[in-house]
Amino acid sequence: MRIPFVAGNWKMNKTIAETRDLLSALLPTLSGIDGVERVVCPPYPALMTASELVAGRGVGLGAQDMHWEEKGAFTGEVAPGMVGELCGYVILGHSERRAYFGETDETVNKKLLAAQKAGLTPIVCIGETLAQYEAGETAKVVSSQTRLGLQGVSAEFAPTIVVAYEPVWAIGTGKASSAENAQGVHGGVIRPVLKELFGAETAQSIRILYGGSVTAANAAEFFSQPDIDGALVGGASLKPEDFISIVRAAQK
Ligand code: 13P
Known about the structure:
By secondary structure, the protein is of the alpha/beta class. It is about 45% helix and about 15% strand.
């Protein structure tokens, strides 16, 4: 049985004061929702405050990215060990990092191996662009991102990886994928690649999230699909009632 997983990616939103406000609105209810692994991912400057607020509340904390080196002359970067002081999770390979900041499958893989070493649970993002979708290249792109991003991880670490399928054309557009289309990619492309990489048992235990315009209104339909194990939520994770509804919808 895969425990459902819902993470809120706040992206470049919320100051420290606003993080305090949002968590004050979220935590009283979010703390009490059992049976769903639930995680919030504020921007770096707010992680310290957030870590104090979520401590002991049953809600995990994640960073939105990190570097793969342990320390050194990498101005502006944050090391895995620094993330690990505050967070249990880290988002890797988000399409916005791929599109605007030069993230590649190779750097995603380096970061994933660094997350393994640092004891962090990675949320590895993959997904095709609109042009690739329209050209019918979804399966090719997504399987290649999965293979290259996840290569070389240990058998013990593999089951802890969380994969997030986020079609770029569905992110922040209000045009979510249909649940059937997402199920087709999760069950027909990603899980079979995971099986090739890690074997059937491990492939069955890895959570595959859907992300891209998930709302309180459409979440339940996604979660009713057999291979959609949760969601990576952007915009709706900034609205307490909506995020709480999405987490509730993930309860099986
Ligand atoms: P939206 O939910 O705003 O479409 O963002 C999805 C996303 O990119 C989460 O990482």
